[in-house]
């Protein structure tokens, strides 16, 4: 299992000499290397939004949402948890062998939990046929390619373009059945932040329910909602049109070679009142009145669609 002292020292060395370089030397946000510090994205008001009554009712939440716990984080840090593989890869393969849908995804502008490292992990899990699958574009309703996926059966790895680290949202949804008492069956693995949706059979045997630990990209809501719905429905991540079986494989090149250039890289600190444009993948320019323009309509639609999806799941 390793020594807490040794693993913690190794973790601290990596944090101080590798991870923090972007923050302390380059003054860039390690969670979105396109932005200089302080980075206003994502804004923090979403916490209050998630704790409104209408959202909690729609998703079936029974307690308030909290981003994180300093006490829990500190406890993990004392063990050097970030640097411990500790059976995580084997555990993920075990989930797949039980027929559970697993999807890893990460934004490609994130240095802290970078997509290249995630890709390495995905190839080590050992899902049959995965290393022979290829990357293919993910289609969405807006006709824009926001990322690529490599998938074999119920396992997929997704690279989301022009997206930084993502805001943590954790939801548990159970079927609303009489006398059904849910158990805390969520399984967590101490390996980065790129996790998965899990689909497990209900104890009642009459319905399925989902337990999923999701981190939905603030930067790319269109593809986030699409892959969310497809994973739950056991449809292919690329199109959402194919029922996934054990023999399903994506076809394409073995590597994801899309290069974005520096078009969305910010060379000045972004104003704290700025809004983010999910079409141009960069901050909105200041308006003539000195305030930052807001992208209207689309995000409201996406939020509403997301609430409807959560509400629909609660009926399963």
How would you describe this structure to a colleague?
This protein has 316 residues and is an alpha+beta fold. The chain has 9 helices and 11 strands. The chain has helices at 4-19, 21-24, 46-50, 53-59, 70-77, 88-97, 115-124, 221-232, 298-314, and strands at residues 28-29, 32-36, 102-107, 136-137, 147-152, 155-160, 167-172, 197-201, 208-216, 276-277, 282-283. It has a 4-stranded mixed β-sheet. Strands 7-9-8 form a 3-stranded antiparallel β-sheet. Helix 4 (53-59) packs across helix 9 and helix 8 packs parallel to helix 9. The longest helix is centred in the last third of the chain and has 17 residues, at 298-314. The chain is globular and about 50 Å long.
